[in-house]
């Protein structure tokens, strides 16, 4: 009701103060703000496929050494990546860039795991690399865990030599799938930690959220709470949270405000969304949306005038470094990059600045959003492994 009253007052105020042309402009601003807000919380029905395969060739005439010629966004990123095509049914692994020929990027074709990769195939480049938990070489249990909305799929990845009662919960980012987090399982499993990789609301293996919308990590944090409860039911006494992008937001909320935060011994965050107001405004600017409309969109989400994952509106003002910082009680490792064009690193840097006693920030140069592991796997895993093995003691400082 409060949101409805605010919206009615806004409309009446516009009508009472402005003339016809100005009213039309203001109505346009409201509609623009609403559209921006809806995009921020609505899962994509079909993921973008901005990369096109031009052709596949053999290196030095050897059929065992294949190359793929690509054009499109992210085709020239440094590192090793997944190429997902045919609506997710196809998966290939791409090695380093071999050459750039005008607009065409030539990369090593490491493997085609699923589907038929051929000329004119369209897809997207992601950092996932692994397609299933079994590829990591550990014993895997496929389970469901109970959330407030119903049963959700999850994987338990068992280390070869388990440290007693130590678990981790892995939380993927917005629009991704649990496969995104498998890179993070490796250093933790090698450290003897049992890993619970979860799906959450609006995922294919989980119930829909309110209106099928995201809660920018706030709503999803309650699924993280449920996952911690599942780990505890299975014997966990300490739980490390590992979040990617919006999953990082969910982990921060669970660690600072969640019902099971006393069990959490530390956080590992990759490319985390720490400042949602700034992030939404950043994306609006990238789309040439005026600042006034961006601010209106944020206000609409906050007041519930545009439905997000919470019926009363999303607490965007509380998803901010200045609010998270005083609430932190456990060590945090953040992997971030100044080259991240999707979630700028400023929020993570600010959190580290506010809590140098708890937050260790590892900046990875030249890496895009949630693709830091792909640029420097050995360095990324080494820092993560040292950090997690030191918990719950003071985190290692590099």
Short descriptors:
398 residues; globular; 6-stranded antiparallel β-barrel; disordered C terminus
SSE diagram, text form:
Blueprint: H1 2-17, H2 20-41, E1 51-59, E2 62-72, E3 81-85, E4 90-101, E5 104-114, E6 122-126, E7 139-147, E8 150-158, E9 166-171, H3 182-189, E10 194-198, H4 220-233, E11 238-244, H5 246-257, E12 264-270, H6 276-286, H7 291-303, H8 321-324, E13 332-336, H9 346-354, E14 359-363, H10 372-375, H11 377-390
Can you give a write-up of this model?
This protein is of the alpha/beta class and 398 residues long. 32% of the residues lie in helices and 27% in strands. It is built from 11 helices and 14 strands. Strands 7-8-10-9-11-12-13-14 form an 8-stranded mixed beta sheet, sandwiched between helices. The protein has a 6-stranded antiparallel β-barrel with strand order 1-2-5-4-3-6.
Put the structure in a nutshell.
This protein is an alpha/beta fold. Helices cover 32% and strands 27% of the residues. Helix 6 (276-286) crosses helix 7.
Q: So what's the overall shape?
A: globular
Percent strand equals: 25-35%
Task: Summarize the biggest pleated sheet.
Answer: 8 strands, mixed
Helix share, percent: 25-40%
Compute the number of strand runs.
14
